[in-house]
Amino acid sequence: MGSLSIKTSPTLKPVTLAEAKVQVREVGTAEDALITSLIDAATQEAEQIMQRAVMPQQWRWVMDAFETDGDNRISIPTPARAVSAVNYVRDSDGATVALTPETDYLADTRGEFYALVFPAYGKSWPTPRAQPGAVEIVIDVGWPDAASVPQIVKSWILMRIAALFDNRAAWTSGEAIFRNQFVDRLLDRWSVAGV
Fold this sequence. Notes:
Radius of gyration: 20 Å
Order of helices and strands: EHHEEEEEEEHEEH
Helix content: 10-25%
Mean pLDDT: 93
Strand content: 15-25%
Low-confidence stretches: none
Largest sheet: 5 strands, antiparallel
Strand order of the largest sheet: 1-2-8-4-5
Distance between the termini: 17 Å
Number of strands: 10
């Protein structure tokens, strides 16, 4: 079974500082740094809940071997805009080898909740060295820009920013502050976790 991790972090945000300030009803600039950090925190929390990226970034799918289903396909459990690289550690000499797109492998990134990678016609997966993390697939994930992010995801992020802004501690008056599970249901439509 493979594992996902971030290779290249996003540089764009799904909501602007101005939009977040309207949500928290803040007109001055004294809290701008805090609100900006809350945009990042809320976005990362949405990604954790949905198991998918919000803004453009690169993730790595790492496996010990070319782990496929019955059709010789590798299924990556998150949507992708593109597959940027397929690399493996060659068994004979331990060198990292980059496979060639279209020649060595093909990618199907049309899925809303997954991506598929499979050998090109007439090809098969090579044998990697028997070691942890011998195969790496780099995928481009996230919606292409803030305008493409579904409004319901943006709304959840804005609500979470407001909740974090209003409750700056994990505990208040001796009681824990929890996320609202009913508001979290807004993300269900885009969540990979339940698929």
